[in-house]
UniProtKB/TrEMBL annotation:
<feature type="binding site">
    <location>
        <position position="108"/>
    </location>
    <ligand>
        <name>FMN</name>
    </ligand>
</feature>
<dbReference type="GO" id="GO:0009060">
    <property type="term" value="P:aerobic respiration"/>
</dbReference>
<feature type="active site" description="Proton acceptor">
    <location>
        <position position="268"/>
    </location>
</feature>
<dbReference type="Pfam" id="PF01070">
    <property type="entry name" value="FMN_dh"/>
</dbReference>
<dbReference type="InterPro" id="IPR037396">
    <property type="entry name" value="FMN_HAD"/>
</dbReference>
<feature type="binding site">
    <location>
        <position position="244"/>
    </location>
    <ligand>
        <name>FMN</name>
    </ligand>
</feature>
<feature type="binding site">
    <location>
        <position position="26"/>
    </location>
    <ligand>
        <name>glyoxylate</name>
    </ligand>
</feature>
<feature type="binding site">
    <location>
        <position position="129"/>
    </location>
    <ligand>
        <name>FMN</name>
    </ligand>
</feature>
<feature type="binding site">
    <location>
        <position position="268"/>
    </location>
    <ligand>
        <name>glyoxylate</name>
    </ligand>
</feature>
<feature type="binding site">
    <location>
        <position position="271"/>
    </location>
    <ligand>
        <name>glyoxylate</name>
    </ligand>
</feature>
<keyword id="KW-0285">Flavoprotein</keyword>
<keyword id="KW-0288">FMN</keyword>
<feature type="binding site">
    <location>
        <position position="166"/>
    </location>
    <ligand>
        <name>glyoxylate</name>
    </ligand>
</feature>
<dbReference type="InterPro" id="IPR013785">
    <property type="entry name" value="Aldolase_TIM"/>
</dbReference>
<dbReference type="GO" id="GO:0004459">
    <property type="term" value="F:L-lactate dehydrogenase (NAD+) activity"/>
</dbReference>
<dbReference type="GO" id="GO:0010181">
    <property type="term" value="F:FMN binding"/>
</dbReference>
<feature type="binding site">
    <location>
        <begin position="79"/>
        <end position="81"/>
    </location>
    <ligand>
        <name>FMN</name>
    </ligand>
</feature>
Length: 369
């Protein structure tokens, strides 16, 4: 069947119609007055790509190297909590996509499917995203569990010392796991297809904490994490270590010295600090500061394949997509996800043709763009 999806904006529009208001605003909302999200969008729109003519661009590739492998697409899947709120089985849909495209699914600490079945369904194409929380005892237990499950890459998210205030989700009384009161009951009643499907499949829970000895409070302070925390993680983790949520040049330089394997420029999808600068502008500054030897990843605000090319042009070596994939799932399930993914790849490929390129490899350091 036709999904009605021709862009990420279509996926968002359809998801808004089909999801309960509480769920949509949890996925879509940003911090504060959401001016940070708007400024990041404006920064993307202000970036130009120069069209070039009469170049043979008939044989184009979107494949890029990533930690010794080859990703079929120039973007992977960001860690997103409670994805099964968008539709039952959403986590597994993303895992199957990661397997097909040989791209990383970054499994959230607060995923609604446990880390073990997700790395299996993704055929090993899964990284584990880690939050430091409380005194860290539970955090490092998760690290050991991820290692036992076969994960080779940890993504430490460092931009949430305290959970940012997101008024849209707060107005709905959103909690994780969510509780149903009178307001939520009315909301769910007005969206019967989602409600019946969720009721039939069971309420989504934070699946990595469904066994004795594992606990997590989303609202718990994460403010104790410091450079000693990073050193401890680096010492105990033999695989690749990515630090996500970096916006400052000095922090990036210090991370390079600390021996991390990659730095991910991100403002947490504009969900943390409303006044944060647009991360797409920070990306070029950080690339200039750390040089060409440090893998630099990017997420936040990517809405099209053209945006992805712009991020590579600014110095990214890999990018990650987030909420737009959940919108596609909410709009049309696994078919919607596949449709949007193919659209994004097509947009990126067409953009390369327009600017006279056949590959995304190092376009940010080519003088003729």
């Amino acid at each position: 069947m036709a999904t009605g999806i021709h862009s990420s904006a279509d996926a968002r529009r359809l998801a808004r119609r089909r999801l309960p208001w509480m769920v949509f605003d949890y996925i879509d909302g940003s911090a504060g007055r959401e001016t940070g999200a708007a400024r990041n969008r404006a920064a993307f729109d202000a970036l130009d790509l120069r069209p070039r003519i009469l170049r043979d661009v008939s044989n184009r590739s979107l494949a890029v190297p990533l930690f010794g492998k080859t990703a079929k697409a120039p973007f992977g899947i960001s860690p997103m909590g409670m994805c099964n709120l968008s539709a039952p089985g959403a986590d597994m849909m993303l895992a199957r996509l990661a397997a097909r495209e040989n791209v990383p699914l970054v499994v959230s600490t607060v995923a609604s499917t446990a880390m073990e079945p997700l790395i299996e369904a993704s055929e090993g194409n899964a990284w584990f995203q880690l939050y430091f929380s409380g005194d860290g005892s539970g955090t490092f237990k998760l690290v050991e569990r991820a290692r036992a499950a076969g994960y080779e890459t940890i993504v430490l998210t460092v931009d949430v010392p305290e959970v940012g205030r997101r008024p849209r989700e707060l107005r709905h009384g959103f909690t994780m796991p969510f509780r149903i009161g009178p307001r939520q009951f009315v909301d769910f009643a007005l969206h019967p297809r989602w409600s019946l499907s969720t009721l039939f499949n069971g309420r989504p829970e934070m699946a990595n904490f469904d066994r004795p000895g594992y606990e997590f409070d989303r609202a718990e302070s994460r403010a104790k994490a410091d450079w000693a925390t990073l050193r401890r993680l680096r010492e105990m983790w033999p695989g690749k270590l990515v630090v996500k949520g970096v916006m400052d040049v000095d922090d990036a330089v210090a991370l390079r010295a600390a021996g991390v394997d990659a730095i991910q420029v991100s403002s947490h999808g504009s969900r943390q600090l409303d006044s944060a600068p647009p991360p797409i502008t920070a990306l070029a500054e950080i690339r200039s500061a750390v040089g060409d030897d440090v893998p630099l990843f990017y997420d936040t605000g990517l809405r099209s394949g053209e945006d992805v090319v712009k991020a590579y042009h600014q110095g990214a070596e890999f990018t990650f997509l987030g909420r737009i994939l959940q919108f596609a799932i909410a709009a049309a399930g696994e078919e919607g996800l596949a449709t949007l993914w193919d659209i994004l790849k097509s947009e990126a490929s067409i953009t390369l043709a327009q600017i006279g390129k056949t590959s995304l490899l190092d376009p940010g350091r080519m003088n003729d763009l």
